[in-house]
Amino acid sequence: MAQQFRLALALDAHAAPVARVTAAVVARELGVAVVVAGPDGGLHRFGPAGTAPLVVVEEPGSFLAGVPSERRS
What are the residue ranges spanned by the domains of the chain? Predict the structure, then answer.
């Protein structure tokens, strides 16, 4: 996965593929769930299932991120 990330950067790839590769690397290395929502509405999930994911939304020219909040009883 790290090789794919370096290759995408070297090829000056578009932001969405680089974001997906980055999300996959972060999910694997940190053991967290990450969801990337593309501008076309497509969702790409990486990391362990059954946990609330970090959500990254691609907007034209930028990215927005959200983290799950702790539940209060």
Answer: 2-66
